[in-house]
Amino acid sequence: MKKRIWRDFLILLVIFLGAWIFLTYYPIVDSEVVKESYNERETEIKEKLIELLEFEQADSDTTQILRALGELKHLVSDKDINYDLYFSDSKDINAYALPGNMIVINRGIILECDSPEELIGIIAHELGHLKLNHHTDQLLTTLGIELLLAGNSSTAGEVTKVLTQSTFSRDMEAEADDFAVKKLQELGISPNYLAKLFKKLYTKSDLVPEFLNSHPDMNKRISKFSKYPFEESKLEFTFDWLKVKNSL
User: Fold this and answer.
1) CA within 13 Å, CB half, 1
2) pTM over 0.70, yes/no
């Protein structure tokens, strides 16, 4: 059953990407029709991802981490984009944006955050990728090529790796960082919180290669966030961060 789901998902994704590339270079229909078709396909892909990768959506009242993530999601909002936040029980130290306006936060990155403000910075960064449509560009340039070459022989692990560990360009990372800085300032949070997190990860680079490999120019990014004076956030939360982390 699982194998059939993966096969259907791969077929859907290849068809979607092929149609998108063709219509980009040979526009034979109205642009609004293309946009509508893209949105429909993106929703299908999102549903498949949730089914296959077993993410848990924030806002659920079932666990401490889902309640906490739901609270953070409501803080990190944007009037132009409605996104869904998901928790993954993966130990990999990472977070990523996916089709269908999804942001996925791994258990690994949560455990590295000393405060919810640091995690807010990570969520804001991924929201920047979504708002700027970086995930769409990533699919067309990386996922599409790899899937077309792999064909039906792709395994669940290979596809998951492409989806969750593909690297954004340095320009895209810089743009998402700038968005995160602006969002943190709107919330009264010093961007230096992200500098603290990245410095911590940088000193443990032998333990977190996935995060560092997918986020190039770490020293420059740390310098960007460090130039903002550090001030303790005045935000109040309904949860105890240490208890949330201990529950994982």
Assistant:
1) 2
2) yes
Of 218, 54, 171, 195, nearest in space to 121 by CA: 195
Answer whether 42's CB lies under 8 Å from 100's CB.
Answer: yes
Coil, strand or helix: which one is 221? helix
Question: Per residue in 20-45, pLDDT tens?
Answer: 555 454 444 444 444 455 555 667 66
The helix-helix angle for 31-53 and 156-165 (nearest 10°) equals 120
Structure-token match 């409605």, residue found:
82
Alpha helix (H) residue ranges in the chain: 2-25, 31-53, 64-75, 107-112, 116-131, 134-138, 144-150, 156-165, 170-186, 192-203, 209-213, 218-226, 241-246
| Tally of residues, the chain | 248
Number of domain units in the chain: 1
| Full domain range(s) for residue 30 | 2-246
Rounded to whole angstroms, the Cα distance separating 69 from 85 reads 7
Query: For 84-95, how does the pLDDT look when each residue is reduced to its tens digit (9 = 90+)?
Result: 999 999 888 888
